[in-house]
């Protein structure tokens, strides 16, 4: 093993900041186009999460200025809860540092994205990030920060007090970017963001040359999801060992009830029987083999309920329909949702909207819009499990006799989203997710088929009506003449009455 | 920003081991099928690198045993150089620890893969990895190791001396896996590995039930690539700052010559003129703004030569043709190579083979086999830049008038491969790489068109010859009769002679 050959350069450890600096394309910062989009996305995600926690209608202002041919300044301001001051330097200057590691659905997850934007700015323009934040604890502060990549630690250039008119955070990053090519992506990202967060109002200002304001479709602030205990199905050996360390002396029965969701006293007893252990067994007496068996059994026992979905936050039927209608004015639209389920013990849901309208491309399969935890995904669609399932289906069976202007909006939400890469652009293949997404797309597909059938039926009916109407006019003209009677003044009403029975089929 | 909200669970840092434990799908360990493949791949990669450094013909033995329905033992033994003993625990028990961070082409890069296999084994089967290694320094040692995920440090369960018959390393990992579904992938991986490493001999033993031996197509051990200095185009601010720290007091001119490849004294002087600085400028007197301008200019100056390709290791025409011929017996085959180039200053090459033969699927576009740094890529093909370029081309223009049994073997090699994710399955989009790969595929495509034209031509010629031959026979029969002469005993030779002129066109 060379990694491992002593004749070569010595062995050493690199920091996670160094790893992602070297492999920044994995985190969405591979080229000057995607980097603009990624920086905006990471900042907006954080702003939306902050407003959600503060239970406010997000008012987010984005300003992107071209400072020279390829140097941009990106500024994102929000009215969120502001940051606890002591954590600002590490939150922006340290990779894998954050507060989002608890078990509930949120947009950000890794404690990686914003720091990557800062790092990319630093290595391409030699600029520090400027963070102006104010929380309820007192007057705001402004930080100017860089990153020590090798050590994965922030470097504080300056720090001072400065009052803001309101609580919230404003972040300014200078970076090398290709705004001309990124512009369309950024606009699309902002627009689609308001599909999944219909209450958010987002302003996007391109250096005064163009100003876009979007969102505010709904006035309702969504409920904050509640962090949950882990589901027993998620208890791999690592999780189990950590839980045991937290409460080392306890009856196994009580340990199960206290540590996991969906485990009441009765379920715990039934599970212990399944495991073949006594209800009085204590965790400190478990051998390593017992713990291993416990983990396997927790993952296999089928007596645990579906996971608690209060840690999840779907868009919901009303809001989802409202936002798609607001942005795309479809002529027909339908929402559906799968029951919450779990993948490797992580609760998730899949919800979606199918819509027909002239603003969608008129093609042979639906145009797919992907969302995870209320964030639209714009890159790496081809290997995404949602795309694969969509393409696998035979859309001729779902009403596509020819091209149709149909769009499919798929939203996957979970306490843990299995992204294929740190750039969070694409959903990995997990069997439970595949099942749910397939079920959802089929349901939406069947509704489309019905609707397409109705469209076809009403077109056929309209044609029949026209033909019948013509003949009926002839009969109405010559019939009375033959019978030497008065012709009716108009046949239109009679034809319509006759046909209205059928057009509703 | 919530990541950042003080009302939520406190802020904290997680180790890179914790990050990849939580997001193991990013590193190829998302499900029990891919995990088997990934574990085998990571171990084999390391073995091949170790043999390459030792300049030996790799003899790699893989044994995969089903220990119960879903628990597997994977054992990979090589005849490489063995490991320096003091580094064994961290090499297997610490994420982002390795010796492959220098500037030359090699299979492994991240110091991540093998540790992920160990980690996956540990959390699914509670087993430690067993490493038996022996290097030239003395008798071998056996280590039994686990990982402290939260701390990202190895736990040494046991360590003892045990002599091996030869230098090399044997690694045994127990993990939960779906061998039934992974089997085909593993076999394909091993076979394709010998395409890019034709001198390697790999044995694959499925618990005695099936034994596959493949490779050894060539007896030539490839030259070891030579680590190179960075190319000036790669000098972003981070790299530049590090280089300056290493030699803080120097004339800028000498600093450039010493730190970078392709910068001789004359080039350095010309560059300094381009930069607008005096040749006598010293690096300790450079302001931060100067350094920033230096970085930008290094990336833009077009007077630096193409990167040194001695740090690269292509398969090469002879070996590439040999291995494809050995595995697929094509009826026609052609090799091509683009000149080495660089992406963001990282040297790379693209080489490839196109082949026609009955062992390839008979379809409308070529079947694509992807390789990076001599490793075949089997997953996540759809978003790979090679696949995208291949699909973008109109293959009807390259001889595909109908389906053809054509395969395209594409090999991308670089000191730094821009993988889309830590699982190293797919190449990200970089403009310089796209240009080279497009050029290569087009070259191979044009050769195919010529060949397809020849095939069509010779088919047409064969048909003409048949028809002419029939008529000629009639003439040969009745002509002499009319002339009252003897008919020739056979016309076949005359026809062939007549047509041979044409079939060579």
The CATH topology of the largest domain in chain A is Heat Shock Protein 90
How many DSSP H or I helices of chain A?
13
- Please indicate the percent range of residues of chain A in DSSP E strands (runs of 2 or more): 15-25%
In quaternary terms, these chains amount to homodimer
General form of chain A: globular
Descriptive keywords:
homodimer, 505 residues, alpha+beta, Heat Shock Protein 90, Helicase, Ruva Protein, domain 3, Ribosomal Protein S5, domain 2, 4 domains, eight-stranded mixed β-sheet, six-stranded mixed β-sheet, 38% helix, 20% strand
Structure, described:
The structure is a homodimer. With about 500 residues, chain A is of the alpha+beta class. Chain A folds into 4 domains: about 200 residues, Histidine kinase-like ATPase, C-terminal domain (Heat Shock Protein 90, 2-Layer Sandwich); about 70 residues, Orthogonal Bundle (Helicase, Ruva Protein, domain 3), CATH 1.10.8; about 140 residues, Ribosomal Protein S5, domain 2, CATH 3.30.230; about 50 residues. Chain A is about 40% helix and about 20% strand. Chain A has 13 helices and 16 strands. In chain A, strands 7-6-5-8-3-2-9-10 form an 8-stranded mixed β-sheet. In chain A, strand 2 and strand 3 form a beta hairpin. The longest helix of chain A has about 50 residues. The radius of gyration of chain A is 29 Å and the shape is globular. Chains A and B meet through strand 1, helix 1, helix 2, helix 3 and strand 4 of A and strand 1, helix 1, helix 2, helix 3 and strand 4 of B. Strand 1 of chain A pairs antiparallel with strand 4 of chain B.
């Amino acid at each position: 093993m060379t990694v491992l050959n002593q004749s070569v350069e010595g062995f050493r450890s690199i920091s996670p900041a160094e790893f992602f600096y070297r492999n920044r394309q994995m985190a969405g910062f591979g080229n000057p186009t995607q980097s603009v989009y990624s920086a905006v996305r990471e900042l907006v995600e954080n702003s939306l999460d902050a407003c959600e926690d503060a239970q406010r209608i997000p008012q987010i202002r984005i300003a992107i200025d071209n400072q020279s041919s390829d140097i941009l300044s990106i500024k994102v301001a929000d009215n969120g809860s502001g940051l606890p001051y002591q954590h600002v330097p590490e939150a922006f200057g340290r990779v894998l540092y954050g507060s989002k590691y608890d078990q509930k659905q949120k947009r950000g997850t890794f404690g990686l994205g914003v720091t990557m934007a800062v790092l990319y700015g630093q290595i391409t323009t030699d600029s520090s990030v400027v963070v102006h934040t104010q929380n309820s604890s007192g007057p705001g502060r402004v930080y100017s920060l860089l990153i020590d990549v090798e050590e994965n630690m922030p470097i504080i250039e300056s720090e001072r007090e400065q009052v803001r008119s309101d609580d919230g955070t404003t972040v300014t990053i200078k970076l090398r970017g290709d705004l001309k090519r990124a512009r369309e992506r950024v606009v699309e990202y902002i627009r689609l963001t308001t599909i999944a967060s219909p209450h958010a109002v987002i302003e996007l200002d391109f250096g005064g040359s163009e100003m876009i304001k979007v969102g505010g479709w709904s006035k309702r602030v969504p409920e904050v999801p509640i962090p949950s205990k882990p589901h027993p199905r998620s208890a791999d050996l690592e999780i189990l060992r950590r839980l045991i360390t937290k409460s080392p002396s306890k009856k196994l029965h009580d340990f199960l009830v206290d540590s996991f969701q969906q485990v009441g006293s009765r379920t715990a007893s039934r599970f212990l029987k399944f495991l073949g252990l006594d209800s009085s067994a204590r965790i400190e007496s478990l051998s390593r083999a017992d713990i291993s068996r416990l983990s396997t059994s927790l993952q296999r026992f089928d007596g645990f309920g579906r996971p608690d979905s209060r840690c999840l936050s779907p868009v919901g039927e009303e809001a989802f329909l409202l936002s798609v209608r607001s942005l795309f004015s479809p002529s027909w639209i339908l929402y559906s949702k799968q029951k919450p389920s779990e993948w490797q013990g992580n609760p998730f849901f899949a919800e979606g909207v199918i819509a027909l309208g002239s603003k969608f491309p008129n093609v042979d399969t639906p145009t797919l819009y992907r969302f995870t935890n209320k964030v639209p995904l714009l890159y790496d669609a081809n290997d995404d499990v949602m795309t694969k399932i969509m393409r696998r289906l035979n859309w001729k069976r779902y009403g596509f006799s020819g091209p149709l202007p149909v769009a499919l909006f798929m939203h996957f939400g979970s306490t843990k989203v299995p992204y294929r890469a740190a750039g969070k652009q694409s959903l990995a293949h997990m069997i439970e997710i595949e099942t749910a997404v397939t079920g959802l797309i089929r349901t939406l597909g069947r509704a489309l088929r019905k609707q397409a059938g109705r469209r076809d039926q009403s077109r056929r009916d309209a044609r029949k009506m026209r033909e019948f109407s013509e003949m009926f006019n002839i009969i109405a003209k010559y019939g009375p003449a033959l019978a030497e009677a008065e012709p009716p003044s108009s046949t239109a009403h009679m034809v319509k009455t006759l046909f209205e029975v059928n057009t509703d089929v």
